[in-house]
């Protein structure tokens, strides 16, 4: 089995995935950002890195087409979005239906979009967390695969809360990818998630 991981920046989830000893080859790490710091984690491990710079493409469709062509050179079983900050076109998302996943730093459907930790604190929620989901054309709205809960503390700031959520992301994302590689997770044609044999 093989994975392609897409990043835009820091790459801490990429690092957690690389350190997890997954039963898969990381065929390539691809970024829209030539300066993505997370590339360092791939290079350390001699994993192929590729840049598809969105700034070189006038239309979103053109960027997504170039990205898709690059990903498909590796024919991955799973495409993993790990802090990939570009909105993807329906054509792209449909092409990878059932083998494209994302991690989002909130308990979806609460707080889709950016700045989730500040918004969670402002809303006064007592439980926050992160979500791994299949990607569908509406951003942060795909079928949920797994979530991890993080209790909110009285004295939390967005930064402190983000750090605790990130710890859970680093645990949850490799776990879900492992389940997917083991054939335990499927997206049905009706858009439901089926999970077998995990606790
Ligand atoms: C994470 O919080 C992830 O949930 C969100 O973007 C952030 C990426 O962080 N989608 P990193 O690049 O993996 O460190």
Topology, please?
Blueprint: E1 2-7, H1 12-19, E2 25-31, H2 39-44, E3 49-51, H3 60-72, E4 78-81, H4 90-95, E5 100-104, H5 116-123, E6 127-134, E7 144-151, H6 158-181, E8 185-187, E9 193-195
Parallel strand pairs: 1-2, 1-4, 2-3, 4-5
Antiparallel strand pairs: 5-6, 6-7, 8-9
Helix pairs in contact: 1-6
Bound molecules: 5-O-phosphono-beta-D-ribofuranosylamine.
Quick structural gist:
This protein is α/β, with parallel strands linked by helices. The chain has six helices and nine strands, in the order βαβαβαβαβαββαββ.
Structural features, described:
The chain has 6 helices and 9 strands, in the order βαβαβαβαβαββαββ. It has 199 residues and is an alpha/beta fold. It has a single domain, classed as Rossmann fold, CATH 3.40.50.170. The strands form 2 sheets. It has a 7-stranded mixed β-sheet, with helices on both faces. Strands 8-9 form a two-stranded antiparallel ribbon. A hairpin with a 5-residue loop joins strand 8 (185-187) and strand 9. The protein starts with a strand and ends with a strand. The structure holds 5-O-phosphono-beta-D-ribofuranosylamine. 5-O-phosphono-beta-D-ribofuranosylamine is lined by residues 7, 9-13, 38, 82-83, 103-105, 130, 166, 169. It catalyses: N(1)-(5-phospho-beta-D-ribosyl)glycinamide + (6R)-10-formyltetrahydrofolate = N(2)-formyl-N(1)-(5-phospho-beta-D-ribosyl)glycinamide + (6S)-5,6,7,8-tetrahydrofolate + H(+). Residues 3-177 form the Formyl transferase N-terminal domain. This is Phosphoribosylglycinamide formyltransferase. GO terms for molecular function: phosphoribosylglycinamide formyltransferase activity.
């Amino acid at each position: 089995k093989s994975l392609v991981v897409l990043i835009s920046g820091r790459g801490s989830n990429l690092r957690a995935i690389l350190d997890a000893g997954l039963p898969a080859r990381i065929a390539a790490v691809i970024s829209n950002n030539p300066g993505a710091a997370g590339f360092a984690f791939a290079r350390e491990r001699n994993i192929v890195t590729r840049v598809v710079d969105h700034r070189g493409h006038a239309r979103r469709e053109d960027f997504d087409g170039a990205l898709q062509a690059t990903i498909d050179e590796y024919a991955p079983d799973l495409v993993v979005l790990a802090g990939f900050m570009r909105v993807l076109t329906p054509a792209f998302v449909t092409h990878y239906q059932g083998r494209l996943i994302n991690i989002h730093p909130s308990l979806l459907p609460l707080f889709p979009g950016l700045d989730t930790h500040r918004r969670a604190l402002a809303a006064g929620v007592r439980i926050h967390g992160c979500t791994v989901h299949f990607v569908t054309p509406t951003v942060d709205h795909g079928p949920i695969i797994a979530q991890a809960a993080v209790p909110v503390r009285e004295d939390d700031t967005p930064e402190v809360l983000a750090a605790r959520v990130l710890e859970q992301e680093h645990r949850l994302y490799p776990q879900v990818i492992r389940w997917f590689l083991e054939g335990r997770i499927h997206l049905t044609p009706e858009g439901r998630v089926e999970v077998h044999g995990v606790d």
